[in-house]
Amino acid sequence: MSATRSIFVTNNGLSDHIGTAQVLPYLEGLSARGHEIACLSVEHPSHQDEYEASVAPRLARAGIVHSPITRRISPLAGKLERFAIPTLMQSRLDRLVETFQPDLIHCRSYMPLGAVLPIAERRGLPYVFDMRGFWVDERCEAGIWQGPVGRSIARHFRKLETRAINGATAIVALTNDAKSVIATRRPSAGSVTSVIPCSVDQDRFRPDKVARAQTRLELGFSAKDVVLAHLGSAGPLYQMGTTYRLLAALQALGMRARLLLIGNHSIDQHVTAAQKLGVTLNPADLTCRRVPHDDVPALLNGADIGLSFRIATKSSLGVSATKVGEYLSCGLPVISNTGIGDITSILPDRRFGLVLAHHDTAAIEHAARTIASAPFAPRAVIRAHAAGRFSLDRACDQYDALYRMFNAERQAA
Questions:
Q1: What is the pTM of this model?
Q2: Per-residue pLDDT reduced to its tens digit, 145-201
Q3: Residue 397 to residue 266: CA distance in whole angstroms
Q4: 203 burial level (CB within 10 Å; 0-12, 13-18, 19+)
Q5: Whose CA is closest to 131, among 174, 90, 160?
Q6: Rounded to the nearest 5°, which phi and psi values hold at 286?
Q7: Under a CB-based contact definition with an 8 Å cutoff, are residues 304 and 258 in contact?
Q8: How large is the average pLDDT for residues 274-290?
Q9: Residues with Cβ < 8 Å from 132, sequence gap 6 or more?
Q10: Quick one: CA dihedral 348, 393, 173, 333, positive or negative?
């Protein structure tokens, strides 16, 4: 089966966190496997220096054609641009199809569908609908799309979702749970849906004793401190109350528990949020760091346990949290909760972490006692467990097989 020419369309910027962690590595992997890749992305001007210093050289080395759209930075222009971006993407994609002559279009998530669907349908091009999660459901469940305007936006994207699921030559979901849901929306989808979880570059995310010692020294953690790490947002989809209460429960058992928050966080905001939930946190036990993605592995190595508590809803069946793979690849056991994608198969037993069935006091105190009673598996064992599911090479091999399937079917037609 021969290689393909593909246009990858994403609403993310290659220089933002998701682009660096979950888009660019796949494009590089596909290029290394012989595919010719063009990428249409939406870049933020504030990341221009990072783009020039890091992203552009990687694209050049991989031979990837990049056609970026740059966002506006003024508040008014930014708000108006949200309505213009799909039209801009459609126009740019149409020109790119003309010049690049792709075999297929690869659409990452929902936002680019308004551009991808009309172009693919008009030009008779097959496309991959790389759903990621159930984005429409996530936005509604988080209360982001409310009122008449919100419901109108949700209806618009729901129609695009239905068109995409029904018309895609292939669908990519993040979890087996999501694949089952998709099959209820399109009976034949089971045969064209691939499950490719969010992957991790395990050359960078790995146990590192030197980085661990240096990070703990720099952050002021002692050898007796048990450091819980929360990587990423603390937005409405996340159960931060469970994080606060687990920290307090561990401390109540006499453990020197600390909380490391990696991302855009404020100690004062977390202390206040915890107080509203009836939990008193000592600001001295919280450490906040916002760092580039390349520096995340060192911070994770300084921790002892990774946390991933999320609201369990219909949409959460489609969630493959990148942070879980990054924690495990660094050898950290993970504490999470049921109802989140394939989490029970990711953490099949106590060696690799814990899965809370509930967020009540009894469940949290039981988790704290379990953590205090016996060690988890060694970091090398946890990392090896993660490799079978979250390896970047494995994910790129799966995308490679998907692309080659397109060409095999096209040549047979």
A1: 0.85
A2: 888 988 998 999 999 999 999 999 999 999 988 898 888 877 665 567 899 988 998
A3: 40
A4: exposed
A5: 174
A6: -115, 135
A7: no
A8: 96
A9: 108, 109, 172, 174, 318
A10: positive
For 317-362, the DSSP string reads GG---HHHHHHHHTT--EEEETTSTTHHHHS-STTSEEEES--SHH
What pLDDT shows up at residue 82? 64
Q: Which amino acid is at 23?
A: V
Amino acid identity of residue 153, one-letter, is: I
- Residue ranges of alpha helices (H) inside 101-228 are 113-123, 135-141, 147-167, 176-185, 209-219
pLDDT tens profile 304-342: 999 999 988 888 888 888 899 999 999 999 999 999 989
Integer Cα distance of 365 and 256 in angstroms: 16
d(CA 164, CA 167): 5
Structure tokens at 212: 């661990």
Q: DSSP for 364-382, please give it.
A: HHHHHHHHHHS----HHHH
Q: Which residue has the tokens 């890749």?
A: 37
Q: List the one residue out of 291, 246, 315 whose CA is nearest residue 20.
A: 291
- Specify the residue for token string 């037609």: 413
Q: Which amino acid is at 198?
A: C
C-beta separation of 356 from 336 below 8 A: yes
Considering only residues 34 and 137, tell me which one the structure prediction assigns the higher pLDDT.
34
Token pair of 204, please? 């960078």
